[in-house]
Amino acid sequence: MGSGISQVFASRGCQVTTYDIVPPEDVQIFERIRSNLTVMADQNTKLLDAIPDILNRITYTTDFNLAAESADFVVECVPENLELKQNVFCDLDRLCAPEVILASNSSVISTTEIAKKAEKKDRIVGSHFWNPPYLIPLVEVIRTEFTSDSTMDRAMNFFKSVGKHPIRVNKDVPGFVANRLQHALWREAISIVEQGIADAETVDSAIKNSFGLRLPVLGPLENADLVGTDLTLSIHEYVLKHLESSPDPSPLLKKKVEQNELGFKTGKGFMEWTDEKIEEVNTRLIKHLVKNQK
Fold this sequence. Notes:
alpha/beta
């Protein structure tokens, strides 16, 4: 995520300092970004000539103090460990100028918890990018219990200025907004397979060939208004009691993990996967995302 987010900022003219503990001779960030940009250039040939300038805007360092002291805006992408993140933000809070916004890219850990040990908590926000960050527009900007209105406004404006689509998340809750929606769908999809209503391929096919097609231009609440809130209420009064509502993970999902059916990693999950199938899915996804770049 760090290299992808660095690419986002550098592509929009920002000077970027990327900090990591990996020795410079082992760094692959520039190769990754060059590869990403080369793929994107298939749809935007002007981008090919811009690649050297984009890469030149990125400086790599293993000096934490240097990276922090020169920052105007910080995005943290360290592993999902609460103590580690809290310590990083304490150090950033001490080293960065008071006006610098400190943002965490955590997709799991509460940003409020991450901010608790820092002194200037009001300048800390969540900034949940989606992978790959250089192709998916959304950034969820999460307000903690301490975040000021000014910090939220400045963070929103900054992400807009670098071409992202930021949304305000007014409460720091597990899953924020998009992951709550995504995993509610996944829970029902797994339940349908578990109950023998349809197999995994059929479930995915049903989504990709029905409401999945209109989701990019018609969100669920727009759709509810389109059909009418009265009809939506009638449907919900009938169907919701029949939908999966368990607060626990599916027994089928647990069984697959216990049996080492881990999807792409092991060649079998809800479906069976060969190297060729995996490559086809990855290529299809990247081509789709690149084609839909604005």
